[in-house]
Amino acid sequence: MRPHMHSDQASIKKSIRTYMMIGAALFVFTGITVAVNQVHLAVPLAITVALIIATMKGSMVASVFMHLSHEKKWIYGALILTVIGFAILMLVPSLTINDSIGTPIHVAAPAAAHTTH
To answer: Which stretches within the chain are classed as H helix?
Structure first.
C-alpha cells in the first residue's frame, strides 16, 4: 500500500469537483448565450456581449481543461508577446497615414492639374 494514497484520492476528488464546477459554469454561460440571442440587442452591443461571454468560456476551458492555470510563466510570457504584437499592428498603420510613398503625381499635386494656358 502506498503512503500517499489518501492525498492522491483527495486530489482526484478535488480535480473532479473542479471539472464539474467548470462544466456547470460552461452550461450556464451557454444558457446565457441563448438567452441573450433571444433579446435581439443592437449589433455593437450584441457583439460586445458575445465576445465577453466567449472570453469567459474560453478562459475557463483553457485554464482548467487545458491545465494552463499551472503554467503561469508561459501564459504571462505569451500574453506579453501578444500585447506587444497587437501594439505593433496598431502602430504600423498609424505611422503610414501621412506618407506619400506610392502616391501618383496627379493625386499628390491636384492644384497643378487645374491651371489653364
So the answer is: 5-39, 43-60, 72-95, 105-108
